[in-house]
TrEMBL record:
<comment type="similarity">
    <text>Belongs to the HypE family.</text>
</comment>
<dbReference type="InterPro" id="IPR016188">
    <property type="entry name" value="PurM-like_N"/>
</dbReference>
<dbReference type="InterPro" id="IPR010918">
    <property type="entry name" value="PurM-like_C_dom"/>
</dbReference>
<dbReference type="InterPro" id="IPR036676">
    <property type="entry name" value="PurM-like_C_sf"/>
</dbReference>
<feature type="domain" description="PurM-like N-terminal">
    <location>
        <begin position="55"/>
        <end position="165"/>
    </location>
</feature>
<dbReference type="InterPro" id="IPR011854">
    <property type="entry name" value="HypE"/>
</dbReference>
<feature type="domain" description="PurM-like C-terminal">
    <location>
        <begin position="178"/>
        <end position="329"/>
    </location>
</feature>
<dbReference type="InterPro" id="IPR036921">
    <property type="entry name" value="PurM-like_N_sf"/>
</dbReference>
<dbReference type="Pfam" id="PF02769">
    <property type="entry name" value="AIRS_C"/>
</dbReference>
<protein>
    <submittedName>
        <fullName>Hydrogenase expression/formation protein HypE</fullName>
    </submittedName>
</protein>
<dbReference type="Pfam" id="PF00586">
    <property type="entry name" value="AIRS"/>
</dbReference>
């Protein structure tokens, strides 16, 4: 669980004294308890001029081409090493917008809460949402709260929708991928999925495996400032991992993709955990990672720039778009063998994001 006291000190937003310790069905009734919950929590922590209107929607101003994305989050457990469902929800939607080449600006935030969730847990989630929004530079402008009966949820589900303006130098589309493009990954794979799995399985290592959840929008914006049109496609490999992303792209665009296992960055403890549990890290979910398909002429400079960013210190060139074996992804192993990489056939890690 995140350090609540550290967050409270950072935000100067101590939890108020309330006449209830857990959330009940009454908090979803729309009456007195609902208003107490929202006034003392959501509106207090996330206060801003647009949200403070407390209207059915938000009136916002955007210029030029706009990106819009939505996602739902139902991770279990809701608190995990390196984060919780609150910041995951913000970062997930912010990153989806960034992958479109957008500059995220506004979010909606909707909760489906199971009765029995403690107010302490809800408070910590709200504080994490606040911190994640401040770090990403986005504002929650509208939302909704519902409460379901015990046993009909899993503590809390969150839906976020986001909107932002397209970066003036962005031209991101899978149609722009071409033969010779270099494939660059921003950091270590499989950390998020294994952070959650280590908690579920009670695994202990020399140091704790942490989720990689973070916002990527500032990193992407800086790369677009410098490399603009040379960036053909951006994508974040969440559920299904990098293997599923590559297979989808190869099939959709009719190109071949070569991947080199020796170039894939992965933390040693994450690799050991995957081996222990019999999991292939290329299929494990990530939450603070992105993949870039860039023009071959800028690949080295792009990589150098990315490695100077906090979100890209472990970045590497891991593959190439090729004309041979169209619609197929081929991975060359560390010892030189080759294998066909397909999509994840089932659910390797359920309830991961």
């Amino acid at each position: 669980m995140i350090e609540a006291n550290k967050l409270k000190m950072q935000l100067k937003c101590p939890m108020p004294k309330l006449d209830f310790d857990v959330i009940t069905l009454g908090h979803g009734s729309g009456g007195v308890l609902t208003n107490k919950l929202l006034d003392s929590g959501v509106f207090k922590i996330l206060s801003n001029p647009l949200l403070d209107e407390r209207h059915d929607g938000a009136l916002i101003n955007l210029e030029g081409k706009t990106a819009f994305s939505t996602d739902s989050f139902l991770v279990s457990p809701i608190f995990f090493p390196g984060g919780n469902i609150g910041e995951l929800a913000v970062n997930g939607t912010v990153n989806d917008l960034a992958m479109c080449g957008a500059i995220p600006k506004y979010l909606s935030l909707s909760f489906i809460i199971e009765e029995g969730l403690t107010m302490t847990e809800f408070w910590e989630i709200l504080l994490s949402i606040k911190c994640a929004c401040e770090k990403a530079g986005v504002t929650v402008v509208t939302g909704d709260t519902k409460v379901v009966e015990k046993g009909k949820g899993d503590k809390i589900f969150i839906n976020t929708s986001g909107i932002g303006s397209i970066h003036p130098k962005a031209n991101i589309s899978s149609k722009r991928i071409k033969i010779g493009d270099k494939i660059i990954i921003s950091g270590n794979i499989a950390s998020h999925g294994m952070a959650i799995m280590s908690v579920r399985e009670g695994l202990q290592f020399e140091s704790e495996i942490l989720s990689d959840t973070t916002n990527l929008n500032h990193t992407i914006s800086a790369l677009l400032d410098t490399f603009g049109d040379g960036i053909h496609l951006l994508t974040d490999p969440t559920r299904g991992g990098i293997a599923t992303v590559f297979k989808e792209i190869a099939q959709h665009n009719g190109v071949g993709i070569d991947i080199f296992q020796s170039e894939l960055p992965i933390d040693n403890q994450v690799s050991n955990a995957c081996e222990l549990l019999g999991l292939d890290p290329i299929y494990v979910a990530n939450e603070g990672l992105f993949i870039s398909f860039v023009d071959e002429s800028i690949a080295d400079d792009f990589l150098k720039t990315l490695r100077n960013d906090d979100n890209g210190t472990q970045a590497n060139i891991i593959g190439t778009v090729v004309e041979t074996h169209p619609k197929q992804v081929i991975m060359e192993s560390v010892i030189g063998g080759k294998r066909v990489v397909n999509m994840l056939p089932g659910e390797q890690l359920p309830r991961i994001c």
